[in-house]
Amino acid sequence: MRKLSMLKGLATGTLAAALAAVQAAPALAQDSLELVGHPKAGGTGFQPASTELARDLQWLDGMLLVIITAICILVIALLAFAVLRFNSKSNPNPKSFTHNSPLEIAWTLGPIVILVVIGAFSLPVLFKQQEIPEGDVVIKVTGYQWYWGYEYVGTDLGYEGYMIGAPATGGDNRMNPEVSAQLQEAGYSDSEFLLATDSAVVVPVGKTVVMQVTGADVIHSWTIPAFGVKQDAVPGRIAELWFKPEREGVFFGQCSELCGISHAYMPITVKVVSQEVYDAWLAASQDEGGYVDVRQFLAAS
Ligand SMILES: [Cu+2]
Q1: Any stretches that span the bilayer, and where are they (predicted)?
Q2: Quick one: fold of 134-300?
Q3: What global pTM score does this model have?
């Protein structure tokens, strides 16, 4: 009997899911934005670099990996050589000298040269991140326990971005059929649970975006890995980061500074759209006095 009701439950669950999918189909169809910056099952690499900054960082990472690998191989080879050549059997009468000036100079200069080379490549990348250009779009982002607030500087548009399934959106940070339906309605699937937010940051492609990052209560951190940016949101201070997205799409990040019990439930969604879609969306959102779903403008464009 119990089994039967369970089966019934499953069947109706599937039916509900199917119905939800059918209802969500037009929403999905109008959302022509590709999910770009999101984790993939079994993935081990970086998210696709979608700004010059991210490309630079990933290139630097690759270069460092080569240097680290070479050093590891050298050290392991030296260790193996020492173990085999100088063990008590093969070398019963060890030499008893304690200093070797040329060798000491070599192993001091070697690491210095390696560090200078690494620094010469990494500092320009760091400076590029830290020198904030003039922004075509400037957005102030404020971290709250536990969501993000966005204000488009120079306009009166401001709104908040909550994780779909967070208490503010009627959830309890857990997946359930209602949350699944909410995700579908917003154009996402269940795999974007814990990443998708109810209102996204919308920015135009190919334009310089400056984010002014601050915190309202405790320290949070705003990041989009595919853009190569991450900035602590410190209460009482404003820090800036910038990026220039090179492709349209949906990108995800998560708060990256432990900020309390729901730290894991304040993700970040950025939608990069064409300038026309952005302009239409910005105008409509200002008219509405809050976030308007950008997908309707994608469908129109
Ligand atoms: Cu946090």
Answers
A1: 63-84, 105-127
A2: Immunoglobulin-like (2.60.40)
A3: 0.82
